[in-house]
Sequence to fold (155 residues):
Amino acid sequence: MPLMDTIMEFDSRISPVFEELSIKVISITTAHGPLQDYSIDFEFFTQTKLNTFTKEATTHITSMHGNIPGSISIGHQHQASLFIIPQSVHIECNYKLLQIDINDMKRILQHPHPTLYYSEWLLDAIKNASILMELKTNQNTLIEWPLGIKSAVIL
Fold:
């Protein structure tokens, strides 16, 4: 397949599917409530763009939405003086999640189910991402919290 044909086919078949794609993400961390612990869920939205000059496709996380339903202790378990408070989270960003080259595009397009195959690459990239969020603490400050990802599912 000629180079530009690969790029154009990827742009027409794959990129539109991943435009404002919704992905549910569950954190490894749980929030502590008065009677039980709660899972921390986020919804990520992505956007995939092609650069015909570099012949690469890049998928970015464009926004993250979620709730911290209880408190999250920071530091040692017996030193609970600092913790993240329950809050709603809405972050607009441009986090580069996955970048592929022309050879990857060809491999994806040759797969019997190219959209599903690219989805698997995207979910693996999310699970391996190092994402820091600025969240509010009980001491009226902001702290960078690493979002460890337990699972991710395309909605």
Q: What stands out?
A: DSSP finds three helices and nine strands in the chain. The two ends are 32 Å apart (CA to CA).
